[in-house]
């Protein structure tokens, strides 16, 4: 989904139109390479007990999705589109003066770019080859509502939120102003077991889908997901708190700004020894393109860190990896001169380790891949910067915060409430 957010953010900043197509019966267009046989459909006379050999792919075959992708790839390449090396669902057509882009998710296609005539030509060709529905301007994609305002493009999931809250089985009328209570610390063995484990897992899974447009939910989802195997009553209480927060922020989403300033910034943070069971730290990062959020993550680290500096250093490496990929992706989309990217961190010790390309006695046990940040600084891709914790946007992804600080950071990262509810 980061690719889709990047594409829409670029389109918003460049004032490109966004169109949407839907392919009718996509999986029926694939060509089979193997010999595949099936029994006669029910109701067809078959006195000799014969079987059918399939000439084309049908729904239900293991290879159906891949064969459809290959068929679409061939069609797009015939029209001059080239598959991106950084996301195989992204296709670019570039000339000296124009750039046009197609983003594909199975049978849903987003088109944007500078040459509308070329996009219309592609639509006509695809309709001839496959039969498509031209849905006009992009308004609804994979459960995400796309709204257009003067300041840019807003992505929300209000319809999905309403469906989630209607079927969750909780009374969510009482308001909460943060996704989780301040200073919340839960263990896997807290409290009594919860009988309806499926309800807990289903609700957390749906919340996870909401994080595509709701970075404010990322930490809560990461936290609640730790207890999916054996949810207990305190874990359900925390989930209930998150759902009540969601009920009163259902119009919230992200604003992808229409701005000429399309510089890329990254923020990384960690919460040392956050997990009471494993003592592992939590990594959080967010990337902003022209002040618009395009990629973020909240994740428990894979190993125990011996110090807060090490935990921060690991978080920086995760953010640096994402920056490297995003820069390559944006370059494919026609953005250049993005380097160097500022990576903001609030730990001076971690910054010192990353900035100095020498062997450190106290960090010799850290895995080689964690020194990725240092290499990217030497290459000129990254420049590291210190900022106070109060201004660290990635703090949202590492721990529950007080409501005032939480709302301040959300406003700075481009979280926008398109339909605020009365207080």
Note down, in words, how this protein is organized:
The chain is α+β, with helices and mostly antiparallel strands. Among the domains are: 2-142, Alpha-Beta Plaits (2-Layer Sandwich), CATH 3.30.70; 259-387, Ribonuclease H-like superfamily/Ribonuclease H (Nucleotidyltransferase, domain 5), CATH 3.30.420. The protein contains 11 helices and 18 strands. It has helices spanning 2-14, 64-78, 116-130, 158-167, 197-210, 218-224, 233-247, 308-332, 348-355, 372-379, 403-412, and strands at residues 18-23, 37-39, 51-53, 82-83, 90-94, 99-105, 108-113, 132-137, 140-141, 144-149, 152-156, 252-257, 264-271, 282-289, 292-300, 341-345, 382-386, 415-417. The strands form 4 sheets. A 6-stranded antiparallel beta sheet has the order 4-5-6-7-1-8, sandwiched between helices. A 5-stranded antiparallel beta sheet has the order 9-10-11-12-18. Strand 4 and strand 5 form a beta hairpin. It is globular and about 70 Å long. The model has no long low-confidence stretch (mean pLDDT 91).
């Amino acid at each position: 989904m980061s690719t889709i957010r990047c594409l829409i953010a670029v389109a918003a900043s460049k004032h490109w139109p966004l169109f949407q197509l839907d392919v009718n019966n996509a999986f029926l267009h694939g060509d089979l390479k193997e010999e595949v046989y099936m029994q006669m459909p029910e109701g067809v006379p078959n006195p000799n007990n014969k079987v059918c050999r399939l000439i084309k792919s049908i729904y239900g075959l293991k290879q159906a999705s891949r064969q459809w992708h290959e068929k679409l790839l061939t069609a797009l390449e015939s029209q001059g589109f080239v598959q991106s090396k950084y996301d195989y669902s992204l296709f670019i057509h570039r000339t000296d003066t124009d750039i046009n882009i197609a983003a594909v998710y199975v049978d849903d296609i987003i088109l944007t770019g500078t040459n509308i005539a070329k996009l219309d030509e592609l639509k006509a060709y695809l309709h001839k080859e496959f039969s498509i529905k031209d849905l006009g301007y992009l308004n609804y994609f994979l459960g995400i509502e796309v709204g257009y305002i003067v300041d840019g493009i807003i992505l929300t999931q209000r319809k999905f939120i309403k469906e989630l809250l209607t079927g969750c089985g909780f009374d969510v009328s009482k308001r909460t102003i943060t996704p989780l209570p301040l200073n919340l610390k839960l263990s896997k063995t807290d409290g009594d077991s919860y009988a309806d484990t499926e309800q807990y897992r289903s609700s957390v899974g749906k919340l996870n889908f909401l994080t595509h447009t709701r970075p404010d939910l990322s930490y809560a989802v990461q936290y609640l997901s730790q207890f999916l195997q054996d949810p207990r009553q305190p874990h359900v209480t925390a989930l209930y708190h998150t759902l009540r927060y969601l009920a009163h922020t259902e119009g919230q989403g992200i604003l992808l700004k229409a701005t000429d300033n399309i510089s890329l910034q990254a923020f990384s943070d960690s919460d040392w020894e956050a997990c009471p069971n494993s003592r592992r730290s939590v990594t959080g990062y967010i990337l902003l393109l022209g002040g618009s959020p395009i990629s973020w993550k909240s994740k428990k680290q894979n190993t125990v860190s011996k110090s807060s500096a090490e935990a921060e250093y690991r978080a920086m490496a995760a953010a640096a990896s994402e920056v490297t990929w995003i820069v390559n992706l944006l370059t494919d989309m026609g953005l250049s001169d993005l380097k160097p990217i500022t990576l903001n961190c609030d730990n001076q010790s971690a910054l010192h380790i990353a900035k100095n390309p020498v062997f450190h006695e106290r960090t010799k046990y850290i895995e080689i891949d964690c020194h990725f940040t240092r290499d990217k600084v030497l290459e000129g891709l990254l420049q590291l910067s210190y900022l106070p914790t109060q201004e660290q946007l990635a703090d949202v992804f590492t721990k529950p915060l007080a409501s005032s600080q939480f709302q301040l950071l959300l406003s700075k990262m481009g979280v926008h409430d398109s339909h605020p509810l009365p207080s």
